Amino acid sequence: MTQEILDNNDIKKRRRAAVAVALLTCFTMSLIGSALNLSIPSISGDLQVEASTVGWLVTGYMLTVATLSVPFGRLADIWCRKSELVVGIAVFLAGCVGAALAPSMAALLVMRVLQGLGASMVMSTNTPILISAYPPEMRGRAIGYSIAAVYVGLSLGPVIGGILNHNLGWRSIFVAAAIMAAAALAVAAKGIVKEETEGKGRSFDLLGNIIYAGFIVLFMYGLSEIEKGMLPILITAAGVLLGVVFVIHELKTEDPALNISLFRSNIGYTLSNVAALMNYGATFAIGYLTSIYLQVVMGFTSQTAGFILITQPVIMAILTPRMGRLSDKRSPFVLSSIGMGFCAMGTLFYLFIDEETPLGLIVAALIITGIGFSFFSSPNTNAIMSCVEKKDYGIATSVLNTMRSIGQTTSMVIVTIIVAIMLPGMQITQASPAVLVAVIHRAFIIFTIMCIIGIFISLKRKKQ
Questions:
Q1: Tens digits of per-residue pLDDT, 239-283?
Q2: In contact, 243 and 406? CB cutoff 8 Å
Q3: At residue 23, what are phi and psi to the nearest 5 degrees?
Q4: Containing H/E element for 19?
Q5: pLDDT grade, residue 51 (50/70/90)?
Q6: CATH of 7-191, one of 3.90.1170.40, 3.40.30.10, 1.20.1250.20, 1.10.730.10
Q7: By three-state DSSP, how is residue 229 classified?
Q8: How far apart are the first and last CA of the chain?
């Protein structure tokens, strides 16, 4: 009896440590991104560089994470998840300290890439470690914790970033992130149990991972710059071609970097990842377009617009853990399909806004899409993890992270192309209210169609 009590205490301690690390890392890495957006003008002025160059602080970080997530996910599955997590947090911490001390834009960009390197290691391991600490029937609850932390970080990022940037300067944002990363490092080093991974002994497909990295860099970079002429289109096409080469290589490799056959043999896994791609592609630009609408059309200040936009991630932070727990008791496929339905309702609403739309209706649309993403995110992640064996948790998490990055990039590309067509040679912030409303209508026609397709994809999984 005493031994059983001790074992239960060890299990509880392990779970508490896994939850604490997941909360700290997810919160910190989402917070720094949303907080940094508000400091771009300050960085531009302080380091004497153009705003377009400062934009690479976001692009460089996202490219690094998307490129390295799959290689580090596979490495975690065959090496040691705790070791990779600890190293990743330490690298991210070093990047934050270096960014806070950066004397130039070039140095700051290098530090952001270093942060992306550390983040890719952390994001490939924190969720697998978290869900491994819980039995399968409690997996959704665990996933709900980590996703809720992301939304809390997104919610508080603009507020905390604005306060820090205004009172202490943009470097203080990196100092704050470094302090939280140091706390996560201490908890991970002491509290996470070092266990032998189920995939130990498998080889690391170095060539496959190099091809994959080249595919992601070319594809995402070309996609993000596609409105600038023929060269980005050619770069995107080269990325697609390299992706084909990657698939052919992986199908011939005995121990591949990414098990392509899993997509072919497990339709539930494939459709869940496609659903995630569609969801992020349809919803990521909502905050961007709504922010500009609130400022250009409704005349609010950026600070007021930021407080209004907090509505959506706050709803997500409140509901996501509950949806995670519910997905342990109800079909995650059905719940995520309902989520896509709510997202479709929210995006459909934007087709009817004009220059006279009351603020209350805009807030209602944000609430609806927040509910939709809450129903979708945790259950869909739970569905993906239920489709793979424990030995593949790392790579499954990394593939989902890649779907998220590609979806987010696609969402912004759709907006960029529409703006380039309707406002040649101009920025969207320079548009008149009438033209901005027209841009929003065209973008949300596409986003609504993507959500509707996502509903059918989600429902199709239930039949498999």
A1: 899 889 988 888 888 777 777 777 777 788 888 888 888 888 888
A2: no
A3: -65, -45
A4: helix 2-37
A5: low
A6: 1.20.1250.20
A7: coil
A8: 44
Cβ atoms of 112 and 95 closer than 8 Å:
yes
- Tokens representing 10? 């060890």
pLDDT beyond 90 at 96: yes
**How many helices (H) and strands (E) would you count in the chain?**
20, 0
Domain boundaries, the chain: 7-191, 205-256, 259-464
Query: Angle at CA 19, nearest 5°, toward 372 and 14?
Result: 145
Please give the DSSP secondary-structure letter assigned to residue 331: -
Least confident of 3-12, 156-165, 335-344: 3-12
Cα–Cα distance, 378 to 242 (Å, whole number): 32
The confidence score (pLDDT) of residue 3 equals 43
Q: Which residues contact residue 317 at a Cβ distance below 8 angstroms, ignoring those fewer than 6 apart?
A: 148, 151, 152, 155
Angle at 7 between CA 4 and CA 8, to 5 degrees: 85
Residue 439 near residue 303 (C-beta atoms within 8 A): no
* Among the listed residues 189, 169, 192, the one whose alpha carbon sits nearest the alpha carbon of residue 181: 189
pLDDT tens, residue by residue, 400-445: 878 887 887 788 788 878 887 887 766 666 778 888 888 889 999 9
Q: Do domains 7-191 and 259-464 have the same CATH topology?
A: yes
> CATH assignment of 259-464?
1.20.1250.20
